[in-house]
Amino acid sequence: MSEVDTTTNAGQLLAAASGGRRRLGDRVFSRTAVVAAVTILALLAGVAIFLVAEGFPAFTAGASELPEGKSFIDYAAPLAFGTILASLIAALVAVPLAVGVALFITHIAPQRLALTLGYLVDLLAAIPSIVYGLWGIFVLGPAAVPVLKWLEEKLGWIPIFEGPASATGRTMLVAGLVLAVMILPIVSAVAREVFAQTPRKLMEGAQALGATRWEMIRMTVLPFGRSSVISGAMLGLGRALGETMAVTIILSVSGAVTFNLISQANPSTIAANIALNFPESSGLAINALIATGLVLFAITLVTNMAARAVIARQNHE
Amino acid sequence: MESATLTRPTTLLSGGLGWRRRAVNITMTVLITAAFVLALIPLISLVFEVAKRGIPGLSLEFFTDDARGQIGGGGGASHAIVGTLVITAVASVISVPIGIMAAIYLNEYGEGRLRRALTFFVDVMTGIPSIVAGLFAYALFELFLGPGIRLGVMGSVALSVLMIPIVIRSAEEVLKIVPNHLREAAYALGTPKWKTITKVVLPTAFAGLVTGVMIAVARIVGETAPLLVTTGVVDSMNTDPFNGRMQNLAVYAYNEYRSPGVFKQAAYDKAWAAALTLIAIVMLLNVAARLVYRRYKTEIR
Fold it and tell me: Nearest by CB to A107, which of B1, B229, B272?
């Protein structure tokens, strides 16, 4: 592929003509670039291959050899459930909020402030997840306890608020909320970008017809940005699925499979389970943890690819 | 969006605007503003709490001592700070050349299937959960060095998996905005392509490349999960990434929280102090990246 690119450039054609064959420097440099590209593909293939190789023994091992004496499916299913539950809570909370933040920055805040405000929200993405974890368990958790109590008393008839309310705040709801804060900047960054690109003629047309600012947003900005917001939401979901430390620290786990979001007994997530158990595990338990990592990899891969597909289709239109 | 000029005609007509439409407009404006304010509350609370709880743990000892033999409230995190620097530096040494060369490939050379594959898989790579990157590094090294292996360089490899796609993406963006007429001018003078890239394209993009690398470092310097499974936990100073366990700030903070020992509050103080140090490093990198870009960026027309 490096031989033919002379055709793309008249200048280079000249250079090639004067030098006769391609110069040594050119060959070395373009080879190096290709090697870098191939290395990255090999690295990614390596990730998949090594995870499969190290995870495989767990797929075939008998129940008695695996942690908790369960077959791999029984071991991994509650974890996958917890992972998806926590991420869905995060996405449900973060996406509407992120759309609001993006609308505020692009269409409501004074233009001069917009850049700075956007930068502030982006700062949320720069904070390490361990800090979110500490904040979740020492600050948000305790602060949430009265709210959880209230939810149990007033809304206890809804299964997700059945309780008994946790006295520490180490619940699925709080973990989901912290994840929501963590993915908010990703979703809002995507939404912001597309909202800012809404064609002026559409917005001005709406306003010329007498639309209020909200009507203008509802009729032009939101429809224009819809598919980008969906893909941004999926990217955020992918991030939440793989988030480890915040959940590891905040969530009090029992392995229960339940939709009850405010109690002390919660399913763990795949990532948190690995972080909690990996340091002290050995033998087949390690293989089992790596196998769950492979499952997580697969789930996030599907989510991210779906998000990219939405983006690609929209670029196509 | 210069809405000031745009809304004027509407307000002129607002005599005819029904109270209902006006009420909806105001309600939604308030709701949207509230969403923004709500989103800022965690940020403010986080920064405030980390500062408040982190400062008591910051002492000279925190930066000069390690934690060896400290069962009491004493000891510091110097081993973790040094470990963070070493692990991050090694990760950068792996990621930056590969990442920038791959970006050069994508922007200057690439075509056909390899280019499409690389673009696609870099996207895939950005989505790899950090813990999975850690498991990969463990699985890789375990194969050669046996089970239970923990090394500083394993952490660097794990972090590289996370860092490479960030470096590529930002470098690609920067190379893209180097104007083509610069390349064409170099070619017209008979400059070979590789010299055009190294002497014209890269210097033009230099500030942007440095900024991108700094942002990438800021993104990985606070990673915990991949290091928890690769570099292990240790109490004493280790500066050799190829020999033995190596502590770092994020895992240190996690460990002080998780196994506080007898002097609980002292351990929590140290966890918060480590968190504060990490945030300071991340913010410093972000601000420095901005300054570098502003100060050294080449004017491109």
Answer: B1
Contact A1 B104 (CB under 8 A): no
What is the distance, to the nearest Å, from the Cα of residue A180 to the centroid of all Cα atoms in its chain? 10
Q: Where exactly are the structural domains of chain A?
A: 4-51, 69-316
pLDDT, tens digit, 9 for 90 and up, residues B178-215: 999 999 999 999 999 999 999 999 999 999 999 999 99
The residue assigned the tokens 């936990």 is: B233
Residue B98 lies in a domain: yes
ipTM above 0.85, yes or no: yes
Same domain, B21 and B140: no
Show the domain range for B260.
59-296
Q: Does B110 reside within a domain?
A: yes
Same structural domain, B156 and B29 = no
A266 phi and psi, to 5 degrees? -130, 155
Could you tell me the fold of the domain covering A69-316?
MetI-like fold (1.10.3720)
Domain boundary at B56, B75, B106, which? B56
Give contacts of A109 with chain B, Cβ < 8 Å: 36
- The structure tokens listed for A212 are 């209020």
Looking at the domain assignment, is residue B131 inside a domain? yes
Q: How many CA atoms, within 13 angstroms, populate the side-chain half-sphere of residue B294? A: 6
Torsion-angle region of residue A174: left (phi > 0), alpha (psi -120 to 50) or beta?
alpha
Q: Is A266 helix (H, G, I), strand (E, B) or coil?
A: strand
What span, in angstroms and rounded, lies between the C-alpha atoms of B6 and B29?
Answer: 16
Cβ of A11 and B188 within 8 Å?
yes
Taking a C-beta distance cutoff of 8 angstroms, is the pair A256, A268 a contact? no
Q: Within this chain, do residues B51 and B193 fall inside the same structural domain, yes or no?
A: no
B94 shares its domain with B195:
yes
Question: What is the spatial distance between Cα A278 and Cα B229, in angstroms, rounded to a whole number?
Answer: 6
Residue B72 in tokens: 């009491």
Structure confidence at residue B2 (pLDDT): 44
With contact defined as beta carbons under 8 Å apart, do A250 and A174 qualify?
Answer: yes
- Report CB contact under 8 Å: A139, B49: yes
The pLDDT value recorded for residue A49 is 92
Would you say B155 and B230 are in contact if contact means Cβ atoms under 8 Å apart?
yes
Residues in A closer than 8 angstroms to B13, CB to CB, are: 210
Token pair 């895939």 is found at B124
Q: B147 with B232, same domain?
A: yes
Residue type, position A133, single letter: G
Please give the model's pTM, rounded to 2 decimal places: 0.89
One domain, residues B52 and B198: no
Helix axes A222-242, A172-196, angle to 10 degrees: 140
Residue type, B58: L
How many structural domains is chain B composed of?
2
